[in-house]
Amino acid sequence: MESEIVLEQIIEALRAISDPDSGEPLFSAVYRPGELYAGPFVDEAPDIVGDNYSSGWSVASALPGLHRRPWRFFLTDERLTYGDHSRNGIYIFSGRDFRCLEMRGRADLLDIPATLLYLYDVPQPDDYDGSPLLEAFIASERPLRYQQGDERKRGIASVGYAESEEMEVLERLSQLGYIS
C-alpha cells in the first residue's frame, strides 16, 4: 500500500534528523502504533510516534526548574509551552493488604486500575489490557475474576462528536490552556 511506503519514508527521515552540534539523533526511537499500543483501539493511535525523551531537543516547556539541562526546541516556538511527562511513575500501596516491596520496572500504568479492581474484589473487564500487581499483596490467593467488557464502548472512538459537542470540547480545552 502506498501509504505504508510513505510512512516508512517519514520514519527513516525522522531517524536521520540529528543535532547539528553534537550529531546525536533528535529521536531515540520512532515507533509504529503496534509497537506501543494494544487493544481494540490501536487503529486510532497516531501512525508514527517519535521518542525524543532522552534527547536534548524537545517540545517540552523550558520553565526554570523543570529540567536539568537547557532544552532546544524544534517544530515549535520557544515562547509556547507544551506538555511533557516523566517516564517513571511512582506507585505507593499502603495498608494491611500490601507488602513492602520495590517493584521498579515491573508495573505499567494499566496495571493500577486492574490492581484496584482486584483489591475490591470487582471482576476485571475481559477486554482490559492491564493485570493486577498480585506480588504487591500480602495474600493473593483469591482467584482473578473477569466480566464481559462493555460492548457499547468498543466502537465509540470511531463515532466522533456531533458538531456542537466538538465545539464544546474545543472550548473546554481552550479554557484549560491546552489549545489557543
In short:
By secondary structure, the chain is of the alpha/beta class. Helix content is 25%, strand content 8%.
How would you describe this structure to a colleague?
The chain is α/β, with parallel strands linked by helices. The chain has a domain of 72 residues. It is built from five helices and six strands, in the order αβαβββαββαα. It has a two-stranded antiparallel sheet with strand order 1-2. It is extended. The two termini are 36 Å apart. About 6% of the residues have low confidence.
Main features:
two-stranded antiparallel sheet; alpha/beta; 5 helices; 180 residues
* Helix fraction by DSSP (H/I, runs of at least 4): 25-40%
The coarse silhouette is extended
State the low-pLDDT regions, or none.
Answer: 59-69
> How big a fraction of the residues is strand?
5-15%
Report the structural category.
alpha/beta
Calculate Rg over CA atoms: 21 Å
Instruction: Compute the average pLDDT.
Output: 78
Q: Largest beta sheet, briefly? A: 2 strands, antiparallel
What are the secondary-structure elements, in order, as H or E?
A: HEHEEEHEEHH
Please state how the strands of the largest beta sheet are arranged side by side. Answer: 1-2
Number of strands: 6
Tally of alpha and pi helices: 5
End-to-end separation? 36 Å
